[in-house]
Design brief:
By secondary structure, the chain is of the alpha+beta class. The protein has a single domain, classed as Umud Fragment, subunit A, CATH 2.10.109. It has one helix and ten strands, in the order E-E-E-E-E-E-E-E-E-E-H. The strands form three sheets. The chain has a six-stranded antiparallel β-sheet with strand order 4-9-5-6-7-8, with no helix packed on it.
């Protein structure tokens, strides 16, 4: 689930506080982080619902997607909280927000 200093890293703690009933799985929002329990695996990925089934996608581009059906699931847990062992790097998004605010301020000054 790691991608360019973002995402989940080893020793991060996730809390899957909500077990998802099979009949509700297809109603989850795309991109929801889930812990899927199948016959042979525990899979921590983002969930995407498609016509062919469920796609479990890691944030890292070099990890292949896994496609399963609802019938393949033993259990599905929706991840509610993540406790990072490190301080996440929010600088990229903060810089974008600051640039947007600066542009808005210039626009306001020019309109007065």
């Amino acid at each position: 689930m790691t991608s360019h200093d973002k995402g989940l890293y080893p020793k991060d703690v996730i809390v899957g506080g909500e077990k998802v009933p099979h009949k509700v799985v297809k109603k989850l929002n795309n991109g929801t982080i889930v812990l899927a329990v199948t016959e042979n695996e525990l899979i921590l990925r983002r969930l995407y619902v498609t016509a062919d089934g469920l796609v479990l996608r890691a944030d890292h581009k070099n990890i292949d997607d896994q496609t399963i059906t609802v019938n393949d699931l033993k259990e599905l847990w929706r991840v509610r909280y993540v406790f990072f062992r490190r301080i996440p790097d929010f600088s990229d998004s903060m810089e974008d927000k600051m640039a947007f605010l600066e542009a808005q301020m210039k626009e306001l000054r020019n309109s007065i």
